[in-house]
Amino acid sequence: MTISCDICVIGSGAVGKAGALALAQAGLKVVLVAPALPAHDAAPPDNWDLRVYALNHVARNLLTSLKVWDAMDENRIAAADAMAVHGDDTVRSGQLSFDAYSARVGALAWIVEDSNLNRALDSALRFSTGVKLVQGSAVQMRCDASRVSVTLDSGQVVDCALLVGADGAHSWVRTQADIGLDYRSYGQSAVVANFSCEHPHHGVASQWFLGADGIVALLPLPGERVSLVWSAPEPFAGVLLRESPEQLCERLQQLPGQTLGRFAMLAPSLPRAFPLRLIRSQSLVADRVALIGDAAHVVHPLAGQGMNLGFADIDALLAALDRREQATDCGDLRTLARYARSRKEEVLLMQVATDGLYRLFSSEFEPIRAMRNLGMAALDKLPFLKRRLMAHAFGRPLYSSTGEKS
User: Fold this and answer.
1) pLDDT tens digits, residue range 116-131?
2) Residue 18: which of 268, 277, 317, 238 has the closest Cα?
3) Thinking of the domain 2-40+49-183+276-394, which architecture would CATH place it in?
């Protein structure tokens, strides 16, 4: 059986689902191909997802336009009103702070659990008349001058004008389109867990650069709770995973300048680890193919921007499709080239910035260590430059899904 559509999206993650919904809202006939979607049952009140996202204004605006943001459980979303960054030398006062008031926004970001986001997206997909969900895995792709056909393991064929790969870092679509990539492992893993804390966090996201011990981030959750992301060298990450909850809590309590008091690990009381790597797709597009999300780029999580880059990809693809000539279909190469150009600068800037910070703060060479801490202290006294950095890191919408510039 062959299913015809304007756009076929392959991917079962949040970016793929949001992309399918946004493209359908733009009036296009969309098929979303994904394995059987996992159930995202409401979490027990005392359980918190180990995977959370710091969503910026671009992401929130897109999800709001899709009627997804208000469908999430607001009681499980925390606003990050400020950010405190600590260097690894308290003597030189290597500290840097950002806050929503200085950025002239209501919040810098919102901390959202993976299941909360995906539950709302799944609900929106069930009610969307413009998206047909087809369960299965793609096994073959054929492309000619006017169409792309994707054969699934069930034997079904999806025929479309544009294939969107939202299928993650190991993208099948990227491989089939013969798009090369630059790959480098950081030799680190992100150890994640959630904690209650003795004192309120006041909406402050805190980060510590600890040199050889990696990078620690504590993100605010509702109430007196925080989510830990510890980007640790792999041997040390193994140590953190083997330690008892009490030992890990003790490590957090010893962080310099932390004001949250004592910690207790929240259920589930077993941390998890995710390998960290840098992936650069050599192109975001090919003939009748566009990549979004981790299929297009993977960055170090120290800035918390991976998911935000994916949502910004969707926004930019919508903009390119909206501006195409009336007679052209959505797989037109000029349209896809416009999408790729619009994403090049932001993605490259984020990759260079996160990779550069990782390299800078991984060095134990004392002159570099002194320079980076003094540099943080100097930057903290330059409000104009800090506002420019915040505009990039926390999202400045260039295009809204209604087609308006902002």
Assistant:
1) 999 999 999 999 999 9
2) 317
3) 3-Layer(bba) Sandwich (3.50)
